[in-house]
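Running co-folding for nicotinamide-adenine-dinucleotide.
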Amino acid sequence: MGHFDTGAPHGALPIRLGPAGDALAGRRVLVTGAARGLGRAVAAAAVAAGARVWLTDRLQDEVSATADELGAAGWTAADVADAGQVEALVEAADAGLQGLDGVANVAGFVLHHDPLAIPAEDWARLFAVNVTGSYLVAAAAARRMRAAGRPGSIVHTASEAGKVGHVDSLAYSASKAAVISMTRMLSKALAGDDVNVNCVCPGGLDTAMLREVAQVYAERTGGEPDAVLDQLVAGQLGRRASVDEVAQAYVFLLSDAAHTIRGQAVNADGGDTPY
Ligand SMILES: NC(=O)c1ccc[n+]([C@@H]2O[C@H](COP(=O)([O-])OP(=O)(O)OC[C@H]3O[C@@H](n4cnc5c(N)ncnc54)[C@H](O)[C@@H]3O)[C@@H](O)[C@H]2O)c1
């Protein structure tokens, strides 16, 4: 991120979301990390595109409130890193939606450390949630899709950090690179079941997570968090991408329109990552 090295200087580009359409009409989609931030926006965009959604998050009160606000079919509070809770979650979503044909794995978190002094328990927890959690939800859902002979789609959440990476968040960056690799392998593993698997790589978004990042950078540089946050923009957009804009990429990848796009790590970072 950084707006100093792009083409001609310009002001912030407007947000254009376009019509919601009906790309997910009749789809039954489980969304993780749905209480707030990007997960909430993905759930809202899926509903707007015609899907019935089941929400999950480890924040019980928040996910329950979000489910009410969005008109979700239901919700389950669960920690995606806990295999037992994930089994119960996917069973509840499958029963509540009367079938499952889409998963958006958005739950995740970031930590910052001295790159040579990352506590083992922090490393383990980052991988348990960001990588294993996404895997557990995807595998449990895919087993049900396979058993029911239903086609489906699964969209994971990686990050530009999984491609470019950040020294200050080395473990997080490594976990998101693992999500990209897992996406490729699951895509191959599930192709015969007609289950399409991709991941989205957002750049900096205006969520609680990015405010946390700005706070850490401010502490390291002696700057003001708000001033640091102002610098964390996507160069070509001249601003941060909104969660609602990035949610459109999930709707597309969950839909039949993405049938030929398989095992990919799709950048939704306003043009900052060139590969
Ligand atoms: N915000 C950014 O700039 C940015 C950039 C690139 C990628 N991402 C990724 O996007 C995803 C969403 O991030 P966000 O910015 O909306 O963050 P956020 O913190 O606002 O929301 C994340 C949600 O995931 C939930 N969650 C975290 N750990 C969980 C667990 N173990 N089990 C169940 N739920 C859990 C949280 O409770 C929260 O509701 C994450 O995977 C993140 O790594 C974010």
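Result summary
The longest strand covers residues 195-202.
The helical segments are 37-48, 60-70, 83-97, 120-148, 170-191, 208-221, 225-231, 243-254.
Job closed.
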